[in-house]
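Re: the request from the purification team.
They wanted to know what the chain is likely to look like in 3D before they choose a buffer screen. I agreed to run a prediction and write the result into the notebook, where they can find it.
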Amino acid sequence: MTVTTAATPEQGPADVEPPFSPQLVSEMLRQLDKTIRAHLLYLNNHNNPSYVRSLEQARAVFAPMWEEADAVRLTVTDTAIEWYGQKVFDEPTKASDSLPWTLYKDGLRELTLQKGFEEKELVDFLDIIPKVRHALPNEDDLLTLLWENEFTALQYRYVEVGDESAPLEASPDPGKWPKTGGGATEDPKEAVREAKEEATSGSSGGTSEEQKRSGIVRMEDFDATLYFLDDKEVEFLRLETLREYSTDLRRGVLDSLLDIFEFQVDQLVRAEVLAHIESLMLHLLSAGQYTAVAYLLHEASLTLERARDVQPETKERLASLAARLSEPAALSQLLEAMDAAPTLPSSEDLNALFGQLRPTALSTVFSWLPRVQNAGLRPLLESAATRIAESATGELVKLIADPSHDVALEAIRRCGAMRAVAGVSAMARVLEHGDRDLRLAALSALGEIGSPGALQAMERALSDDDRDLRVQAARTLMTRQYRPALQRVEAAVKGKARESDRTERLAFFELYGALCGDGGIAYLDSLLNAKAGLFARKEDPELRACAAVALGRVGTPAARESLQRAEGDKDVVVRNAVGRALRGGMTQ
């Protein structure tokens, strides 16, 4: 076996553009990793349909790549496999089941796959990886196993483990074994014997054979023990030990369970896996491992898409994990625990968990928003409520009629903030039958929506029994310039509004002035500039001031002319109102 040296598009420096899409190489490696897992799962049953299907898929992903090149050379690091300087397969940790780490730890640094590898040598390669990944007893290391199989479509380059500064060695010719000092020998046993002799001669320091047999204990005999490692080696072992103990094994356990569920078609096996997943999910929630729970819920949905021959009841059971977490009892208990906790998990963890909630969780989230005491939890819960509401408008509209006052109030506010036209009819019913707080919130939300249907519902509120609703409706309709309300408003300013308090009277007259145009000037002028005479009765000054404000809203030349006739009025309230109306009219 030799290393290819011809100029091919198989590999290049990091700053060179790849000859074809790295996605093809990435897909090949991902499927290869899945097939390795399946190979280990069905180690003693390679006729299993799931394994055969996985093997066929692995062979199929090579075809698009061979259409672009005849060979692909990959660089291996401890956490990734790279091609043209780009990571085409990435594992964030050096887990024992990581493909990059499995290759890297035994010294392999480059791997070249040639066209035809998937047909001739793929199964032999699949046999090797589980042996070195799980350190099966009485098995050699990766390089030895690769050498023994005498691959031709697979080539590799390696370094001596522990000596990264040494130049890369090429894979030996088939049938030969590399020697430490260069060259090759036909017999691997001979290579081992030579290596042992070299190590003995280097450490004995000229000790005679007679001294070796004397039975005297010498410090030299212990030079290879842990206590005589150099500082760099000790530090490496310390860091690796810390990394191993700090590694979260939960995700690996979840991956294993979901892989078994995907590849095992036996219903009893899948039922047992589901029981373990449900139990593990409870433990993760109680331990505050919300990222792991979110990962489980996300991967469970993907597993259901890939798995074959899943019984309907089994599929429903796995798919309902997120729905069960979104149920009021479960979610309320979870939020209560978060609210009482002295410290919260990171916002990324909580956002990942809340991102898996179903629309049915909206009612529970709304009911908790007014009660949350934890300042860190509130914005995350607000964000979750917004996300769910935006993705499930139907559920949001349904909650407008919820029996819970807090839930209905929050649903109305969200509809207004989202300008959800779908909620107009539900809020119109609230205006007729809801309590005062809900009716005020519905009126405000309808104003934010501003659709014809929303404004029509607001127009009916002009005749409401509640004074605050009438005032708010009048002010909102004025900003919206809703002219269909003119008839109702004109009846009010000529009737009931004349007798109301100053705030309501002013709101209705302003709305009338904004809608009536020149057609309403005659009536307003009759209020403001009543005919003088001995027996003429002047209108109430405040009513005349409201008429002046309305004329200012009309803002036409005829309206200004009417205002100018009242500039010298003796009543200070009227005179001030006229002055403000004229200034406002000139700036319009």
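For the purification team: The radius of gyration is 40 Å.
Please add any questions underneath this entry.
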